[in-house]
Amino acid sequence: MEKVILDVADLTTKYITRFGEDIYAVDHVSLRVEDGKSLGIAGESGCGKSTLALSLMGYYFPPLHYTGGEIIIDGHNISGMKPDDVRKSILGREIAYIPQAAMNALNPTQKIIHFIEDVVQAHDPTTSKQEIYTMAKALFESLGLPAEVLQKYPVELSGGMKQRTVIAISVILRPQVLIADEPSSALDVTSQKMVIKMLRNLMDNGYIKAMIFITHELPLLYNVTDDIMVMYAGQIVERASSKEAVFDPLHPYSKGLMGSIIVPEEGLRDVKLAAIPGVPPNLKNPPPGCRFAPRCKFARAACTAASVPLRELENGRSYRCILSEEELREAYAREDRQHGR
Amino acid sequence: MKGYRKYFLNKLLWFLVTLVAAFILNFILPRLMPGDPVAAIVSRLAQGMSNTAGIQAIYEQYAEQFGTNRPMYEQFLLYMRNVFQGDFGFSFSQYPRTVADVIRSSILWTIGLQFPAIIVGWLIGNSLGALAAYRRGSFDKVIMPISIFMSNLPAFGMAVVLLVIFGVSLRWFPTSGGYGFDLIPNFSLKFFWSVFVHYQLPFWSIVLITIGGQAIGMRSMAIYELNADYVKYSRFMGIKDRKIVRYVFRNAMLPQITGLALSVGTMVGGALVAEIIFSYPGLGSTILTAVLGQDYPLISATTLIITIMVLAANFAIEMVYGILDPRIKAAQAD
Amino acid sequence: MAAERKLCLSGKGVTKVFGLGRNKTVAVDNVDFNFYEGEVISLVGESGSGKTTLAKMLLGLINPTEGEIYFQGEKRDLSSHRKKKEYWKSIQAIFQDPFSSFNIFNKIDTVLLDCIRMRGGGGLPYEQKVAMMTEACSFVNLKFAELTNKYPFELSGGQQQRLMIARIFLLKPKILLADEPTSMIDACSRATILDMLMQLRDEIGMTPIFITHDIGLAYYVSDTVYIMEKGKFVESGSADEVILRPKGAYTKRLINDVPKIYEEWDLSTV
Amino acid sequence: MKHLLQQISRSGKFVAGFSIFATILLIVLIYPLVVPDPPLEIIGQGTFFEPGIYVNVYDSISAPHYTLNLDEAAEQRIASRFKAEDREAMRGWLVGSGMPESEIDIANTAQLLDQWFANFDPTTRLPGMTNADRNYYIRLNNSIQGLLSTEAAVIAQMNAETAVLEETGTVPQTAYVNVNQVANVRVLPLGTDNFGRDVLTQLVRATGVSLQIGFVAGIIATVIGLALGLVSGYVGGLVDDVIMFITNLFIVIPSFVLLILISFSIGQEQRGAITIAVVIGFTSWVWTARAVRSQVISLRNRDHVNLSKLSGHSIAHIIIRDILPYIASYVIMALILQISSGILAEAGLSILGLGPKTTDVPTLGLMMNWAMIYQAHILGKWWAYFPIIVTIALIAFSMNLMNTGLDQVFNPALRD
Fold this sequence. Notes:
The structure holds four protein chains of four kinds. Chain A has one domain (4-338): 3-Layer(aba) Sandwich (Rossmann fold), CATH 3.40.50. Chain A is built from ten helices and twelve strands. Chain A has helices at 49-56, 83-90, 112-123, 129-142, 159-170, 189-204, 218-224, 242-247, 252-258, 325-338; strands at residues 4-16, 22-34, 38-42, 64-73, 76-77, 95-98, 177-181, 210-214, 227-232, 235-241, 311-312, 318-319. In chain A, strand 7, helix 6 and strand 8 (210-214) form a beta-alpha-beta unit. The two termini of chain A are 39 Å apart. By secondary structure, chain B is mainly alpha-helical. Chain B folds into two domains: 2-84, no CATH class; 99-292, Orthogonal Bundle (MetI-like fold). Helices cover 80% and strands 0% of the residues of chain B. Chain B contains 13 helices and no strands. In chain B, helix 5 (99-135) runs parallel beside helix 12 (296-324). Chain C is α/β, with parallel strands linked by helices. Chain C is 40% helix and 24% strand. Chain C is built from eleven helices and ten strands. Chain C has helices at residues 51-59, 81-88, 98-101, 108-121, 126-139, 144-147, 157-171, 187-204, 215-221, 239-244, 249-257, and strands at 7-18, 25-36, 41-45, 66-71, 74-75, 91-94, 175-179, 207-212, 224-229, 232-238. In chain C, the strands form two sheets. In chain C, strands 6-7-8-3-9-10 form a six-stranded mixed beta sheet, with helices on both faces. In chain C, strand 4 and strand 5 (74-75) form a beta hairpin. The chains are: A alpha/beta, B mainly alpha, C alpha/beta, D mainly alpha. The interface between A and C is large, with 39 and 41 residues.
């Protein structure tokens, strides 16, 4: 078994709204990512996947608050550290973040190289500007970005170039873990592919050891990550290898989600798309028991009686449902027969 | 540099266009008013002066200068020619002084008082606003209501309050004039000291008025910037808050500079009234004398000069903005 | 078969130019098209390709700078408000973002009553109007009784998009322009919306035109696909032909760059 | 709508501002009902009577007297009449007559008086003293003597036949009257101004007039700005270019300069309060026009407007139903700002001597102007100017608070 790079146990964080209400957007989430692996997180908007990305950084500012759990990066527990120490020795160095809206992620009135200088010197004030420039130039060139970008302001870069610049800056200190939150959703398909290629390149060439990739675009997730975790209402409902998650999902929610994938490939026109009725629950006041039960075709009384634990299967898969693997497969087969698939 | 040049030319063109518009307005507004302006002015002349020879001289001068019986466009050309020669005619109320002479003796006082005061007020206000946005909490809760209240005090109100407290009660500073009434302007230390002492109250009253509005504006700009994505990203890259605040301040300051350019006219307006309270020998007091003396040429020239001053200040601020915002220089790339 | 097809919307040399002088941009550049009744059509393009501008021209919200648009084979005349109103009885739209599609100050009743009025039912007794609204809502799986006196923004994105379809159900237009109707809503609600649109099409015999950047969606729903690049149509034809066997370089690249799940996604091409 | 009102009422700033403003408005409405005097009536002969209760002396003599033996009465009597400048002058005399300055304590009344009586001689003429100074000291001495006398004051009336003063009564120093039993008492809480007019009555009326000016100016400015902004934003094209060109011109050309020019050209006689308000309104619409235009432009291409068009609605319907409600909050906020800046503009103009004509009604600016001309601030007559400044500041402050409160409700980014 490979070395575990990122080990998260029972992480729980909440938002405190202006009116003092708590919203548990990340509820007892545990996950592990091994050396050289990438983990994808899928889910509908509002399921807590972006909040999970923020929470994994171990550095919290309002309205997000930490309430419990552990984050261990390469054997180093960061959840007990002082915020200032996290900032200095963890952020950017051990774990780095690529934000959702990379278009605005760079200070508009600062040249790229000056921001890189600030990032490097925030962790090691002794590094000279010359050293930083040499380092940044080498990194940009090895990642296929022109070195002239360093001397430019963000407005002078195209959307795709801006996003790739942000990714390059994020790995300048060679962090172990990279967290990418919808890094390509605002880009056209070609720039999106370039971003994906760059992320793969980072993994393959050892710039980073582990990656967490968050997106609502499932075909993309399937192509980028080794494993996929499906989130629903702040909880993990299923975790499996990408192939299993997409082609053989177990949890009824995952089943619905994967059944709604549309790709321009032969035969897809004849498939009936899956649909899940209803809306996700309000996280201020989640339903008791299984949170998906109100929308689930297979729901029964027991589902709402008590909270449903995550079932671990032998091959490392897990899912959160009171039905067994066999029961679920049987139900799905019955459905397929009905639709004549 | 191409981007900046384009920006510069653009602003210069706009400056010239507004200048022409200001000339036209200054010329046309008094003539648009109902009633015969000549008759009105002549009747005012009679009550404004006792010196018959003076009235006659001014009347002839006036008829010559304004060419009142000629067509509008000729009058306008005449007006333009006179303005460009710096010839505004004689002052009704201070005859035989010329209008140009009256303005010459007051304009430096106004420039020397108002622009430094507005700039100092702008700087202090913006610093306080940024600090309030960043620190929030009790600092914000104290600074903000005070700022809101201060920004709502009329400029003359602040002037009177300062005058009564520091001039009348505490007797720290003189209450009126630009220098001691017993002095004649010269280059002695005594005179400069007197000017400096007389400068304090008008200066601080304008500064205090400016601070409030600027602090409020800066605070909301900075709060907006603090929620920007680059702040979140910079935090997650481990950059210190102090540095991030510097980013935020710089970015929030840029719209504040544009705001200053747009509101400098209003500020100067308030400050002119404050001048009157202190009998400061600037353009504000000149307007007051002109109004009291029904001195039409002086009013017309003073308002024109103030407009030109404000337009020039506006232009200068826009130029500074062009240098400070790198995006303008970068604009050439597209 | 081609001979039986009836034209519903066609265009010749349709061009839209924005701005003047140095700021001039050609959003739609001299395009010709023939949309036939009964087909599902998709206009596919990336952002900035001019597809939304073309859609607005088709809807008659903006006028082409040059060229003509023909409705059912005849030159379209939108010279007066009355003529536009008449045209809008035949063509309607669903927009991308359900949250900004409805006036937040109007109740759901107002939205639906507007449609009844437009179809000439303004003078009907209220009970009959309620019956019509109830029918339209139940078509999209909503209960009018629960929606009356509510505002659209109180519904979820998917529900609002369904309300939009209920609107179309009442209006019964000949043509429906659907501008990215599912891109802002969750994947799990997408199928419902698409199914309802197709069902509505069968029920009232309208011609849907999808405007989308999602090639997968275009492939899934449409019979005929037009690919747009920089204001021009670069390729068009049946969905199978254009998407599975693209001929143009741009189309090939576009389809190549979309992530796949059954085939290998070739990352080496960028 | 209900939800919105609820949110607004939850904003502390709005509620605070609204309460202040409502209080001012109520006072303006109710006070004239209680005190119906004309505000410009001259009641005092003389300038700047201090705030206080004015009791008719004639009536208090004829009112029933009561004897109250209060120990400190004499002391207070002396202290209240014995002014600081008198004490200062006494020190001058004493020093002049050779007393060392360190021995004199002008705050100590008893000691000062002792020293005075020991040293003062009306016949002596100190070096450098003018005749006027000498007379002043003699008058001062007499009045001090009078203050110290313990006899009762005699009331005498002239006998109409004999033209002889006949004693009709005496008023001992321990005599008191009950204010309630005096026929004529006038309360002047803020004293009188330079013309002898009741400042409070005037202030209340002036506040009302200034508010009217603010409202008229604000409404005119908002209507013009709204109309131009709507047309400019919705129609676009050449119309937009022209309107924006004019708007941008008037933004850089200071509006108060135009105000001065126009007000001066109108002439003193034609300048009523409402004329001034109209002029202010016509010179201050630019900001509203700009703000409305940018709002309309962002709304114009919104899908709900397109949907309304597709529903066959007319342009008028679209502007009224689909655009105006969205910008209503901005327009209300702009109106509030315009009202308060209109009040300030009037005040500024009046101080320059270009305010409304002075014979009809007072405005806050005119009152300020009068106080400044008569140097109330230099003379320490605080009641003639300070309440005006406070009133203007309170009006502007309350309106700004309301605005900030509304802004926080409508712009979530500013919320805490």
